[in-house]
Amino acid sequence: MKQFFFALAMILPATFISFPLPVVAQTFDYPTAKRGEQMDDYFGTTVADPYRWMETNDTPELTAWIDAENKSTAKYLDSIPLRDELKKRLTEIVDYPKYSLPWKKAGKLFYFQNSGLQNQSVLYVIDEYKGKIDGARELLDPNKLSDDGTVALQNVEVSKDGKYLAYSISRSGSDWNEINVLKIDGNEKLADRIEWVKFSGIAWYGNGFYYSAYDAPKGDALTTKNEYHKIFYHKLGTAQKDDVLIREDKNNPLRTRQASTDKDEKYLFITESDSTYGNSLFFKDLSKADNPLQCAVDDFTSEIGIIEVLDGKFYALTDRNASNKRLVLIDPAKAQPEHWKDVITQTENLLKNVHCFGGQFFVTYLKDAADAVYQYSIEGKQQGEFPLPTLGVAGFSGDKDEKEFFYSFTSFLYPSVIYRANVHAPGNESVVIFPSAVNFKTDDYQTERVFYTNSAGKKVPIFLTYKKGLKKDGSNPTLLYGYGGFNISMTPNFSPYRLPFLEKGGIYAHTVLRGGGEYGDDWHKAGTKLQKQNVFDDFAAAAEFLIKEKYTSPEKLAVNGGSNGGLLVGASVTQRPDLFKASVAQVGVLDMLRYHKFTIGWAWATDYGTSEESKEMFEYLLKYSPLHNVQAGVNYPATLVMTSDHDDRVVPAHSFKFTAEMQSKSTSKNPVYIRIETKAGHGAGKPISKRIDEQADIWTFLCNQLGMK
């Protein structure tokens, strides 16, 4: 069953910190951004926030500034001859068929397919699946929901009987979703429509489904703080106003909650969280309407997710008392942690995921940031390793009651390929059902996993992908990518968008940092709150390794990251400008004193802490907050900041304020530009046409700065 869980200015002895105006004339003619007089007091220290006005969307002043910035950036990028060539090559490379993992329901087989350059992938169904991938018909084409591809599918769930498809859509990249229902036979759209859905699954039960939503926002829907998440049950054929409220918590407005049901619809599971780490678990036996909701865990100190229900018992993956996670068996009659029984115990490697097919567990471990898969019995006895083609990542889809299952595999030079396999076939022979053919000579390139020493003295992996025959003479243009946050693991992945960079002789360096999830929750916590600086120090250590080993040099090294990775780039650029020639910060968290005041930002406090919780935490955040550590007279790397007007995850004000401050104080010969996408959000669901334009601009900027002709 599916689970849904969702810089270096010194603090002065005086109690006033401001943003002094530059004393040297700017090299570039940037649009002028008004500086306001806003001052904020934090534990007796006054901090200026001259661009507070940028936090309010759709004002004439902000609209004019955005328009001027976009024109300035477009003029600069259009002047680089390389751009047309890169866009043409990107379009060629992206134009290949792409498929999702198929899944079964009530004798039907469903999967997504993109013919190549379709803005959104199309959902197909084989109505009577008999082991062959043929006879598929189009079920739902999101490209028909808008003229420009900016309406995207976010979630799809098929009812137990295979009669209905509930699907959620997002407009212009917003996290706000709308749920609709389709009758699968005949592709008939029903009148059911659910609004103001956010951070929600769709959990079928009987003639309806559970979902999560907020009340309609009273302020700006793209910036207003999200509070009072609720779970409802919707019965088909009824209006949303008649939906049954299942759970809310008026005493804890910042908690989010998601509902799921098992395959047999015997149990309802509800997980709740008040941050990006740690969740509670409640469950209900659905055999009787008056059965109470029971609690298994409610302290938010660990994570737990239900993997499967077998013979009335729950199998769950948890990091409770196991930083690297373990698989446990839970008896619903005694569901508290002291009664859990280990099925697969914690090991030295992170237990990443568990799937159940045909009475067997397929267990994925993360070994030095790459997947290793093993087959286990239900009792927890290892049966053998499930072979993978190379260093990479595998995904699985199947049913606990069926022997056949599907899996995908991908890596840096290995586009996603979909296989069919059988639990009991000799050697688990796999058959390719959806191949992948990219217009790129993958055999001319290689990926190596090398180890660098991070700032704590630990050997950790960095994946390097480049053209064979590389000379380590310090002259290679290199892009270093990282994330380092929220227990998220940076593992091998394929992206056609980085291939032109490799073709031009570039090195793509993909590194592991503390704060991520590659080595379990202890590794994650070592890069959070008062230890967040460890992440930036690790990133600098990775850069220094690449330079020391003569893969590249500071004049040939660029950095890139998005969201929390955008924070990583912002902090790295302001702390160690000497290490990099260029940087691209995408949808970054850049104002660490105010990030928690918008939409879902409050949930990130587990990783970051907030400027209001203590003097110590405020001072720590101020030391690395990218916005607050831009200084005049520093030779910063060339910087491209990227955001979107409908980003309601990390609101664009972060990028606006940081760019204005950088442009205000920049005295270097390196440019600072911002690219503001319209009708787009944090990234999910962005149409391919917009992605190609965006990536063409990124690589044009980087290749130009790194001297790649």
Descriptive account of the structure:
By secondary structure, this protein is of the alpha+beta class. Among the domains are: 16-31 and 46-71 and 440-688, Alpha/Beta hydrolase fold, catalytic domain (Rossmann fold, 3-Layer(aba) Sandwich); 98-261, Prolyl oligopeptidase, N-terminal domain (Methylamine Dehydrogenase, Chain H, 7 Propeller), CATH 2.130.10.120. 16% of the residues lie in helices and 33% in strands. The protein has ten helices and 40 strands. The strands form nine sheets. It has an eight-stranded mixed beta sheet, sandwiched between helices. Strands 4, 5, 6, 7 and 8 form a five-stranded antiparallel beta sheet that branches. Helix 2 (82-94) crosses helix 10 (688-705). The radius of gyration is 25 Å and the shape is globular. The chain starts with 15 loop residues before the first strand and ends with a helix. The model is unreliable at 1-26 (pLDDT under 50).
Question: Secondary-structure blueprint of this entry?
Answer:
Layout lengths: L15 E2 L21 E4 L2 E4 L11 H19 L3 H13 L3 E2 L3 E3 L2 E7 L7 E5 L10 E4 L10 E8 L5 E8 L5 E7 L4 E10 L5 E2 L3 E6 L16 E6 L8 E4 L8 E6 L5 E7 L6 E6 L8 E4 L6 E7 L2 E6 L7 E5 L10 E4 L5 E8 L2 E8 L2 E8 L4 E5 L6 E6 L5 E8 L2 E9 L8 E4 L10 E9 L5 E9 L10 E4 L17 H5 L3 E5 L9 H5 L7 H16 L8 E6 L1 H12 L6 E5 L18 H4 L6 H10 L13 E7 L8 H13 L6 E6 L10 H18 L4
Parallel strand pairs: 1-3, 35-36, 35-37, 37-38, 38-39, 39-40
Antiparallel strand pairs: 2-3, 4-6, 5-6, 6-7, 7-8, 9-10, 10-11, 11-12, 13-14, 14-15, 15-16, 17-18, 18-19, 19-20, 21-22, 22-23, 23-24, 25-26, 26-27, 27-28, 29-30, 30-31, 31-32, 33-34, 34-36
Helix pairs in contact: 2-10
